[in-house]
Specification:
Radius of gyration: 21 Å
Distance between the termini: 65 Å
Shape: globular
Length: about 400
């Protein structure tokens, strides 16, 4: 397969498929690799930043996702451990959460990529990267149970998730020291209360997100501390049931609800990368770093990162230069797009980790519409995140 492709992308989730579709439509020969076959499920919050639809529209993928029947949620209600709450009204700012099962969302984005001309290789796993000196020039892959093959291309993209084989092979992964969390998800029928909005319930042991889907189902996702080596060994289902029962604010909501899918888990939730690009390679999506599932930014950040990577890759290919310097504009673009929002997410996670903090903030946000509008705008990606980091904003929010 030497020089058959201009770009090889490992991972066909939202980041990889979103990037592959853009590049293929620009005439780039793209190989899109994934260890699974589609449609395939994945543990995820299944609700996205309200601005996800805008990114999908800009890259030409929204019509494909619309066929996956997303549920549009107008708001997100956050309930603190003491029962106080505030509601972030996204509809008032012209947006809505797209709640879509990953089984359908990812398949829709793969269709977008292949319809644009990308070549999909399923059951294809990256084993290592190929180097010539410091330049990455390809990947070693295994298809099914076959022998390892060397595939070469001028640029390699790691879009293969939080446990990225590409990032590990490049030795750029950086585990997060805090918070160390486990995510567990399942679908339920008969959930009471939330219909056109999502909910986040916070307690001392973790938080739980509810996202109404089509077909009358609700996605229930729980994030708790990752069990240590001395913790009792429990199945994912048992751990999920125990954590769900420990949310006092969910007692009425889940009364009479029926679990209709198996529990899926992922951990640790959150990963870092020392750098997102180098000589002959880039990372997008969770492979480039992911911190906070509480704000529902994972799919948005994956697609927005792919949108930022595409013009840099096209320019590098046009110049015949895949060196580190040619790809540095991607690193700068990511910093401009995500740095301030990442800081806000860390502040939010601090309040979530210490429930007394959210107990304090929740009633203040509820009765201070100006501060609530800014918070909704920032977390919904309508507004520059620096607004929420302003000392004046924080003082107005936190005053008694």
């Amino acid at each position: 397969m030497e020089q058959q492709y201009d770009v090889i992308i490992a991972g066909a989730g939202p980041a990889g498929a979103g990037l592959a579709g853009q590049l293929a439509r620009a005439g780039v020969r793209v190989a899109l690799l994934d260890k699974a076959a589609f449609p395939r499920d994945k543990a995820c919050g299944e609700y996205t930043s309200p601005q996800t639809a805008e990114v999908l529209a800009r890259i030409g993928a929204l019509s494909y996702v619309e066929r996956a029947r997303p549920r549009r949620l107008s708001a997100m209600r956050v309930i603190a451990a003491n029962g106080t709450s505030f509601t972030m009204d996204y509809a008032a700012q012209g947006g809505a959460v797209l709640a879509t099962p990953r089984l359908r969302l990812d398949a829709a984005l793969v269709e977008y990529a292949t319809a644009g001309g990308a070549t999909l290789h399923e059951h294809t796993r990256v084993v290592d990267v190929l180097r010539e000196g410091t330049q990455v020039v390809g990947v070693q892959v295994r298809q099914g149970a076959g022998a390892v093959q060397a595939w070469r291309a001028p640029l390699i993209v790691g879009a293969d998730g939080a446990h990225s084989a590409v990032a590990r092979a490049l030795d750029v992964t950086r585990p997060l020291r805090w918070p160390v969390r486990l995510g567990l998800v399942a679908h339920y029928a008969g959930v009471q209360g939330c219909t056109d909005w999502g909910e986040m319930h916070v307690a001392a042991h973790g938080y739980c997100g509810l996202a109404p889907l089509t077909d009358g189902l609700v996605h229930v996702g729980i994030v708790v501390r990752l069990p240590g080596p001395t913790a009792p060994r429990l199945s994912s289902a048992a751990r999920f049931a125990a954590a769900l029962a420990a949310f006092p604010t969910l007692t009425a909501t889940m009364a009479g609800a029926t679990q209709v899918s198996a529990v899926r888990g992922v951990g640790p939730v959150g990963v870092g990368a020392r750098q997102p690009c180098g000589a002959g390679w880039l990372l997008v999506g969770d492979a480039a770093g992911f911190f906070d599932p509480f704000t529902g930014e994972g799919v948005y950040k994956a697609l927005r990162g792919a949108e930022l990577a595409a013009p840099v890759i096209l320019a590098a290919l046009a110049a015949g230069d895949g060196g580190a310097a040619a790809l540095q504009p991607y690193r700068a673009a990511r910093r401009r797009a995500f740095f301030a929002k990442d800081l806000v997410c860390r502040v939010v996670q601090g309040f979530v980790q210490v429930p007394v903090g959210l107990n304090y903030v929740a009633p203040r946000l509820a009765r201070r519409p100006g501060q609530l509008t800014v918070m909704a705008g920032v977390l919904g990606d309508f507004m520059d995140a620096r607004h929420a980091l302003s000392p004046l904003y924080l003082a107005a929010l936190l005053r008694p």
